[in-house]
Design goal:
This protein is an alpha+beta fold. The protein has one domain (9-69). It has helices at residues 29-38, 66-69, and strands at residues 9-10, 13-18, 23-27. The N and C termini lie far apart (58 Å).
Length: 70
């Protein structure tokens, strides 16, 4: 075993560190591109979907009747 320094990539994910702001993050760009290419979807158009911070979803919120599902 040898020390190769801090991990930069692991399992297709990029590990991003910002020591000044004490932040640690994971970037999935490379992984997502590989998945899209494997399903021939890499030329698909993207769309931004906004999600409220701290949003909690549950099965109780799902529509039950056929009319509500439509």
């Amino acid at each position: 075993m040898k020390d190769m320094g801090e991990a930069r990539y692991m399992l297709g994910m990029e590990i991003v560190r910002n020591y000044a702001k004490r932040l640690l993050g994971i970037c999935l760009d490379t992984y997502i591109k590989r998945v899209l290419e494997s399903f021939q979807m890499h030329y698909s158009k993207h769309v931004v979907t906004l999600v409220e911070k701290g949003l909690n979803l549950s099965l109780d919120q799902c529509p039950i009747t056929h009319d509500k599902k439509e």
